[in-house]
Amino acid sequence: MVISLSVVVLLLVLAWIFMRSGGLKFSHALVCALLGFYLASSSMAATIHDGLSATAEVVSGLRP
């Protein structure tokens, strides 16, 4: 699990650098996709899912 978490952190840093540089090439998109797959299989997946679900619930409850 430690190796998987290290890969997630490395891909997160790479994705952040790619997004900051302003140009998203095919290789950059591939890194972002790999980050998504590693995040989905990591122990953080449940926490991320719960956070996004709670955010979606709050947003859907807003009335303009």
Automatic annotation (TrEMBL):
Name the UniProt record assigns to this protein: DUF2304 domain-containing protein
Source domain of life: Bacteria
